[in-house]
Write a structure and sequence with these properties.
- The structure holds 2 protein chains of 2 kinds.
- By secondary structure, chain A is mostly helical.
- Classes of the chains: A mainly alpha, B mainly alpha.
- Chains A and B meet through helix 1, helix 2, helix 3 and helix 5 of A and helix 1, helix 2, helix 3, helix 4 and helix 12 of B.
């Protein structure tokens, strides 16, 4: 295993643990909301806000893991009709497209984050800066870019007949 | 208008080379925005992605995904199959009926048509093969029946539609799906029975009343999930999101304490799988909402309704055209982006013709369900062919009568508004 692969493996592990933690926190948060309303009698004021923030981070990090595991849906109907040489070339284009998409998320996402931070917009119940919530977009984009670059490197090095 | 051309060409190209659909949607939107020139393209994409995801009502989706995972692993499929077998297994071609009924129930509870195909089909297809049913027939029954589960509540795609339509209640959509879902199921059962009779497939296996009761007793706890979610929402006890979170707790309790098929050690993987599925769905939601922004910016909804209404002002003809377009869309596009992108385009036309938004949503979802069983993007069909060890080319012949049934059921959904509207109206959810 090369250093790059080991690094990628550890990165994916960290991402996966984060996704698990966020999903568990989401369930606890909304169940707590129902509990406070019916058992304590007064609905907690921050649960709804926290839930949407957790969703933003959980979904975007989950999407990044999806790229690492090649789990996103696509249409392989036409590609399957190609011979292995052309399939490798097409795959390289897909990695490039994915990397560009990741870059759009990083660049545009960073602009959104810095713009929101500049307005000092604060979430009503928790008092968190909204910019940090949107930070999930460029961070997820960074992982998308990394995984696409790694996949590109792997397919580039691979002999056409291995595909 | 060039922007729209760029959008369509770019999207088609990326789709054709097997780029992830979310990437195809996001990048084609990015290039379309660049074509317009005056818009900060990457900022709009990122902004729309963020605001598209940022919604409390969408939060029900990860919870339904999670409870579907929990229920799917916890031995629910076998319990539902036993119950369906006791109920409808007594007739000739009985396993076909059992398969359809189980897929309807499983698809409803798990919320995933693909999971229904793999879990129910994984047992039913080999079983039917062994009893002499043709394997392509078995794949066709399972694949088409699994999609009906998306119409029977709870259903994530209806939450997505409620969001896209801007103001339709999730509860109304949930109730609206019940009868059309049953009509689809019945239509498939009729075709299955007809083919079975013609080919002389397996005699039924009668079940005694006590067997029916016993199997119902074992399945009732799984079926209760539907009752808890629907009852909770309709009774005003929870919002849809809260009902979904409660369904996770219920599924957890059922899988760990009652059925004892899920241990603590399984939970991390279940959470991770649900998180990844959530990520996949939400990346589609985020990028689709960016795409529908550029379409709105380019006045595509107005142009589409003007050209549709100038073509004909006969509601039936316009509805037929919309159905034809949606069927074609469903063939090439996954359900979630299709709903998010085409609702803003067609809903204004439908309401201009006097169609209720809830009814239109059902018609749209029914159309897109059919697309799940057709190549080249038919997720259900791919899973079904994998499970049934056949190819799409071989299964196509067996699928044709089932497509016929689905198209008839679709026509019923489209032209009998009361099928969708009666239950929500009865519960006072719509006027």
């Amino acid at each position: 295993m090369t250093g790059a692969q080991r690094f990628r493996g550890q990165l994916v592990r960290i991402l996966e643990y984060s996704v698990m933690a966020v999903m568990a926190a989401l369930v606890i948060d909304v169940v707590w909301q129902v509990f406070t309303r019916y058992v304590i009698g007064r609905q907690s004021s921050w649960t709804e806000e926290l839930a949407t923030m957790l969703l933003m981070w959980g979904a975007l990090l989950g999407a990044a893991v999806g790229f690492a595991r090649n789990a996103h849906l696509g249409v392989d109907y036409l590609v399957n009709k190609l011979d292995s040489t052309s399939r490798r070339i097409v795959a390289l284009y897909v990695h490039l497209a994915t990397a560009l998409f990741g870059s759009v998320m990083i660049w545009g996402g960073w602009k959104v984050v810095s713009g929101t931070l500049a307005t000092n917009q604060i979430s009503p119940a928790l008092g968190l800066k909204m910019g940090y919530v949107y930070l999930a977009v460029p961070i997820s984009g960074l992982f998308v870019l990394l995984f696409a670059a790694e996949a590109f490197r792997e397919d580039w090095a691979r002999e056409p007949k291995d595909l | 208008m060039e922007a729209v051309l760029v959008l369509v060409l770019c999207f088609a190209f990326l789709l054709a080379i097997h780029a992830p659909i979310a990437v195809a949607i996001g990048l084609s939107t990015f290039f379309a925005l660049l074509t317009v020139g005056t818009i900060p393209a990457s900022i709009v994409v990122a902004q729309r992605m963020a605001t598209g995801i940022d919604s409390f009502s969408l939060l029900a989706i990860p919870f339904f995904i999670l409870s579907g995972q929990l229920m799917g692993r916890g031995g629910m499929a076998m319990r539902l199959i036993d119950f369906a077998a006791a109920l409808v297994g007594r007739f000739r071609g009985g396993l076909g009926y059992v398969n359809v009924l189980t897929c309807m129930l499983f698809g409803s509870i798990s919320g995933s048509a693909a999971a229904a195909v793999s879990s129910v089909g994984g047992f039913m297809i080999p079983e039917m093969n062994r009893k002499g049913y043709d394997k392509n027939f078995n794949v066709a029954v399972t694949t088409t029946a699994a999609t009906t589960g998306l119409m029977i509540p709870p259903s994530n795609i209806m939450i997505v539609y409620a969001l896209a339509s801007g103001g339709v209640s999730i509860a109304a959509m949930f109730l609206a799906g019940v009868l059309p879902g049953i009509v689809f199921g019945l239509a498939l059962m009729i075709v299955s029975g007809f083919v079975s009779a013609k080919r002389g497939y397996g005699a039924g296996e009668p079940a005694s009343v006590s067997q029916v009761i016993k199997s119902f007793g074992r399945a009732i706890l799984s079926l209760m999930l539907i009752v808890i979610v629907l009852g909770g929402i309709l009774g005003g006890v929870f919002t849809a999101t809260e009902a979904a979170a409660i369904s996770v707790v219920y599924a957890l309790f059922l899988g760990m304490a009652v059925y004892r098929e899920i241990g603590w050690g399984d939970l991390p993987d279940i959470l991770l799988q649900s998180g990844i599925t959530t990520g996949i769905v939400f990346l589609l939601i985020g990028t689709s909402s960016a795409m529908s922004w550029i379409l709105a910016y380019e006045n595509v909804p107005q142009r589409a309704s003007a050209s549709l209404l100038s073509f004909s002002d006969n509601p039936i003809i316009v509805l037929l055209i919309i159905n034809a377009i949606l069927l074609a869309v469903g063939v090439f596009m996954d359900m979630t982006p299709a709903v998010l992108i085409f609702t803003p385009i067609f809903l204004p036309v439908a309401t201009a013709l006097g169609m209720h938004p809830v009814h239109f949503g059902m018609v749209m979802i029914a159309n897109l369900c059919i697309g799940l069983c057709t190549p080249p993007v038919g997720t259900c069909l791919f899973v079904g062919c994998g499970v049934g060890k056949t190819t799409i080319a071989e299964a196509t012949g067996a699928l044709i009568p089932f497509f016929g049934a689905m198209l008839l059921a679709l026509a019923a959904t489209a032209f009998l508004p009361e099928l969708s509207l009666w239950l929500p109206r009865l519960s006072g959810l719509i006027d």
